[in-house]
C-alpha cells in the first residue's frame, strides 16, 4: 500500500501534480491558500484541508509547489506546527524555483525538527506537469532521495541527482532558466537583424530548428518570438524577472559575474516598466525590436490565428 | 554528362568539397593560392591550374571557398580576366562567410560581365564538408539558384533559399554563427555559476542535452566548454571574432543594436589580447571563468586524454 | 547653550564627525560597538557609553554613522529601548549610505515612538569629514530638517534638501556613487586604449583635468587609475560593490534598467572574486586592464614612491 | 610677415577657424566643396578658390577641417596635385576627428611627396572655435610641430603634444569623446533613477556640479539631459555614433575590449533607428528614459523656452 502524501499549493503546476499522484495510487492530503482552487481535486479523491499543518502525518512526505521564496518560507519554513507534526523521518520535497540560499536555510531549519528537506525544482510547464513529463532536479541527503524516487517517477520520467547540497538543485534549475532566457535574447537579436534585411523572421526560426538548434528550447520559443506572439503567457515575464534576479543574487554571493544575465535582467525590467509583466517571458524580445526601431505586432491577435497556431503542433512541454 | 566546375580555394572546407564534386562525377578545375595544398586533388581527378582565371570556362560555374572578404574581393571581385572569361550565363557560387555588403557589391560588379553571383555560405565544419552534410544558405536570382541545385546537393542535403537579395544568405549565416556564439557564452556563464556552487560542469552539460537543449549546438559545444578543452581548434577563435564583427557591422548599417553580440565581441577581443586567437572559439568561455576567479584548465592535455575524448562520440558536424 | 547629541558609530567617518561636533560646542554622548575605538574621544570631551540606548535623551538628537543596512537596522531600527527613550520630539539623523527602502522602513518604525527619522547620507571621505567639508544630502519632514541645520553645518558647508521622502536623500547619494564608479570605468577603458597605442596613461589623465573634466572626480581618481595605484584603499572596493548593488536593487524596485550599473557590478564582483576586495574601488580598473591583456602594476609600491605621490597634492576630499 | 595658409573645409568648425587666422594676420586661401558657404569669408580677406589643390603653395601650410575619414582621404589623401604642389617642407595640419589608422596611412602617403602630416584634432564646439578657445591635440614629427605652434595659438590656448605617432592625437581625441559620451550615459541612468523616485532631474544635475562633478562636461550636458532638451543639436547624435564607432574600431585593432563603448554604441544606434540622428548627442539619454518606461519630453519646444534656456548662461564651450 502506498504512503500518504501531504501537498501544499495547487496552482497551475501543483494541481496537475496532485492529479498524477492520485492516479499513481497515493492518498493525497491537500492544502491551498484559496481553498476553492483545490476543490475540484476532492472529486478525484484528494482530501482538502483548511490548515496547512493538517496535511502532514508523522514521518510522512509532504510536497510543496509555491510561487516565491517568501511564500515558501511562510507556509513551511516558519510553520512550526507543520514541521513538528512531520517530525523525524518526515521529508519535505520542495518543487518551487527558489534561491539556493533559501533551500540551504530551510534545510537547516527543518533539521531542528528532524525533518529532511529535499530541493526538487521541476523543469516543464503546466502541460508537461499534466502529462507527467516534468524533469526533476534533486538534491539533499542520499537516503531521503532514495526513498522519494517512486513518488517523483509519478511526476516525470527524468530525475537528475545534483548531490547532497540542498541548494544545488536550485542552482541547476536557475542555470537552466538563465540558458532559456539567453536563447530568447539571442533569437530576438538575430530576428531583428534579419527582419531589417528583408528576411521573414519565421524563415530564420524554421531554418534554425532544421540545423544546429533542433531542440525544444529553440523550437518552442523560436516561433513565438518570430511571430511576436507574447500573449497569453505560458510563463509570465514577471516570473522570468524573478528567476533571473535570483540567478544574479546567487551568482553575486558566489562571486561570479554574469554579464549576459545582467543584460537579460535589464531587458526584463524594461518590459515590466512598460506594463508587460503579464506577457509571456519571450516578450523580452519586444525590447530588442523596439530598440531597433521596429514596431511590435499587435497584441490583439484574433482567435482564428491563435487557434491555427495552437494546432500547428507547438510543443509546450518545457519552459 | 555533367558540366565542368571551376573551384577557387582548397582550404580545410574547399578541399573536401572538391572531393565530393569529383565523386558526384563533375569535372573540376582547381586553383589554390598555395598550389601544393591542392596537389593531392590531382590524384583524385581534379585539374590543378596555376592562375585563378584558368578555372573558368564560358558560361560555366565556379565555386569559391575563400577565407575573408578581402581575399574574395581580390581573387574574384577584382579579377577582370576571370569574370570576362566566365561571361554571360556564367555563375559564381560564393560559399564563404562574408558580409552581406560584400555580396551585394560583388553581385553588382559581376553583372557588368553578365555573370550571376550567388551567395551560398555553408553551415558545418570540415568533417561535415567531408561527409557531404553541409547546410547551404542560398540567395540570388531565381533562375541561377534553380540551375545550381544539383551541384549543391553534392555538397549537402539541405539548401535553404533566402530570396533574391544576394546579401540575404550571408545575413542568415551570420545570424546562425551569432546564435552559436551566444549559446557558448550562455553555457560559459551557467557552468561558472554551478562550478562555484560545487556542481561538476559536465553534470550540467549532460543534463541540458537530456532536456530542453537536445541539439547539436549544445551537445557539441557543451562538452567542450564543460571540460575547458579549447585545443585543437575546430573553428578558430580569431575567425569567430571576424564573424561577430561582420555581424555587428551589418547590424550597424541596418541600424539594429545587438547588445549580446557586443558582449561576445568584447570577450573574443579579450581572448585574442591574451594570445588565444588559435584556440577553438568555445575558448571565449575562458574569459568568463577568469572573470569569476576560476583558473582555466591546462592547455597541454596529454594525447591519451584527447583520444578518449575523440572516441567518446563527439559529434563535430556543425559549427 | 547647545543641545546634547547622541552619536552611534565612531568608525573612520563617525570619529571625525564627533570631533567637529565637540569643537562646535555640543555635548556628545558616544557609543561604538568596540568601545576602545571610541576611547580617544573621551579626552576631547565626549562621554563614552557602553549601551547604545544610553546615548539618547528625551526629545534630543541622535546621529548614526554605521556601515550597512543590517547594522543600522539592528542598532537603531530594532532598538526599542533607544527609540522609546528618544520619544516624541526626538530626531535620528542617519548619515550612512543605505538603501532608500531601509530609510523608508526606518522612518515608519520610528514614527510609532514619535521619533523623526532624517536621511542624511554624506559625500566625502574621512579627510573631508575631518575638515568639516562633507556634502550632506538631506530628506525627511521639513520641521525636523529645519531644526538640525546648525548641527549639520558643523559637519560640512553644503546641505542639499531632497524633499520629504525619507528615501530621497539615499537615492541621490547612491546616484552620486554610481556616477563616480561610472567615471572610474570610463577612465579605465580610455586609459587601456591609449596605453595600447603607446601613450602614457598619465598623459591622458592630465589632459582631461585641463579641459572638460576639470573637477575632483576626475582629478582624484584619474591619477590613481593612470598609475594603477589601488592600495591603500581610500574607499574599499567591497563597499563600492555594496553601493552599486544597492543602486541596482533600488532601480529594480522602481523598474529602471541601469545597464551601466550592471556593467560596474560585474567588474566589481570580478575584482572581489580575484581577492581584491580590500583594494580601493578604483581598482575595478584592473579588470579592464586584464581584459585587454595588460598586466596590473605591482601592488607593492615602495614607500618612497607612495610618499612622492602623497606629496604631489592629491586631493582626497571626495569620494 | 606671416606665411600664407591653405584651408580646406569651411563648415561649422572650419569657418570660425579661418576667421581667427585672418584676425591673426595670416593670408588664407580657402576651398570648400560648396563654394557659396565660403563666400562670406572673402569679405573678411580670404581668397576663395574653386579647386582644392589651388590652396597649396610650395613648402607652405595647409589646414583641413573635413567631416569624415572618407572625405579627408578623397580631398587630401588621394589628391596628388595638391600634395605635389605642397611638396618638401609642406605641412598638412589635419583637425578632423578621424581614426588613428587614417592618420597613420595619410602620414605615410604624404611622405612620398615630402609633405609632413600632423594630426591636430580639436576639442570644442563651434562657439569655442569662434572664441579661439579650442583645445588642440597634436602628434607627428617634432620639427613640424614646433613650426606650427604660432598658427595653432591663433585657434586655441591649449596645445597638447601626444608624441611622434601621427595616430596618437586621434586616439586621445577619441578617448575624450568616449569619456564625454560615458558621462552622458551615466547621467541619463542616474536621472532616470531619481526621476522614478520622485526627485526632480534638475535637482540632481545642480547638486552634481556643486560637489564632485564641477566641470564643463557635467555642467553643460547635465542640464541638457535633465531637461531632455535635445534640439537644436550642438553636436549631432549621428556624429557621436561615428566617433564611438571609430573608437571601437581602433580599440579592436589594438585588442582592447571596451564594454562601456559597446553600450554607448548600442544606445546611439537605437536613437538613429528611431529617427533621432539629428538630435544633439545628449539625446542618447532618451533611450535610457524610454527603457525605464518614461516618456521623452516633446521635441517641439517653443522658441521662447529655447531663448530662456540660451540666456540662462549655458556654457557650450566644449564638446
Question: Can you tell me about this structure?
Answer:
By secondary structure, chain A is an alpha/beta fold. Chain A folds into two domains: 162 residues, Rossmann fold (3-Layer(aba) Sandwich); 141 residues, N-(1-d-carboxylethyl)-l-norvaline Dehydrogenase, domain 2. Helix content of chain A is 50%, strand content 11%. Chain A has 14 helices and nine strands. In chain A, the strands form two sheets. In chain A, strands 3-2-1-4-5-6 form a six-stranded parallel sheet, sandwiched between helices. In chain A, strands 7-8-9 form a three-stranded mixed sheet, sandwiched between helices. In chain A, strand 1, helix 1 and strand 2 form a beta-alpha-beta unit. In chain A, 58% of the residues are buried. The C terminus of chain A is likely disordered. Chains in contact: A-B, A-C, A-D, B-C, B-D, C-D. Chains B and C meet through helix 12 and helix 13 of B and helix 12 and helix 13 of C.
Indicate the CATH architecture of the largest domain in chain A: 3-Layer(aba) Sandwich
Coarse structural class of chain A: alpha/beta
The succession of helices and strands of chain A, N to C, reads EHEHEEHHEHEEHEHEHHHHHHH
The number of distinct structural domains of chain A comes to 2
The residue fraction in helices of chain A comes out at 40-55%
CATH topology of the largest domain in chain A: Rossmann fold
Tally of alpha and pi helices of chain A: 14
The best one-word shape of chain A is elongated
Please summarize the sheet with the most strands of chain A.
6 strands, parallel
Strand coverage percent of chain A = 5-15%
> Largest chain interface and its two residue counts?
A-B, 62 and 62 residues
Amino acid at each position: 500500500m502506498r504512503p500518504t502524501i501531504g501537498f501544499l499549493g495547487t496552482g497551475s503546476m501543483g494541481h496537475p501534480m496532485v492529479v498524477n499522484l492520485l492516479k499513481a495510487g497515493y492518498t493525497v492530503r491537500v492544502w491551498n491558500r484559496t481553498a476553492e482552487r483545490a476543490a475540484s481535486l476532492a472529486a478525484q479523491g484528494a482530501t482538502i484541508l483548511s490548515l496547512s499543518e493538517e496535511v502532514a502525518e508523522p514521518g510522512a512526505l509532504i510536497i510543496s509547489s509555491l510561487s516565491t521564496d517568501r511564500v515558501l518560507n511562510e507556509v513551511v519554513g516558519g510553520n512550526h506546527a507543520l514541521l513538528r507534526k512531520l517530525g523525524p523521518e518526515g521529508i519535505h520535497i520542495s518543487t518551487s524555483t527558489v534561491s539556493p540560499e533559501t533551500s540551504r536555510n530551510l534545510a537547516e531549519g527543518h533539521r531542528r525538527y528532524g525533518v529532511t528537506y529535499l530541493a526538487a525544482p521541476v523543469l516543464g510547464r503546466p502541460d508537461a506537469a499534466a502529462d507527467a513529463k516534468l524533469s526533476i532536479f534533486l538534491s539533499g541527503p542520499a537516503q531521503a532521495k532514495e526513498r522519494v524516487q517512486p513518488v517523483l517517477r509519478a511526476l516525470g520520467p527524468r530525475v537528475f541527482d545534483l548531490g547532497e547540497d540542498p541548494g544545488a538543485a536550485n542552482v541547476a534549475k536557475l542555470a537552466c532558466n538563465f540558458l532559456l532566457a539567453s536563447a530568447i535574447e539571442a533569437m530576438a537579436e538575430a530576428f531583428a537583424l534579419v527582419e531589417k534585411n528583408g528576411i521573414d523572421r519565421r524563415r530564420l526560426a524554421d531554418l534554425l530548428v532544421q540545423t544546429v538548434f533542433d531542440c525544444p528550447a529553440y523550437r518552442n520559443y523560436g516561433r513565438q518570438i518570430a511571430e511576436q506572439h507574447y500573449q497569453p503567457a505560458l510563463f509570465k515575464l514577471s516570473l522570468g524577472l524573478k528567476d533571473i534576479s535570483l540567478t544574479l543574487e546567487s551568482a553575486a554571493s558566489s562571486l561570479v559575474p554574469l554579464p549576459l544575465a545582467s543584460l537579460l535582467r535589464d531587458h526584463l525590467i524594461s518590459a515590466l516598466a512598460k506594463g508587460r509583466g503579464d506577457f509571456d517571458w519571450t516578450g523580452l524580445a519586444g525590447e530588442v525590436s523596439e530598440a531597433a526601431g521596429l514596431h511590435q505586432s499587435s497584441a490583439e491577435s484574433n482567435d482564428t490565428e491563435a487557434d491555427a497556431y495552437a494546432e500547428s503542433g507547438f510543443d509546450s512541454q518545457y519552459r
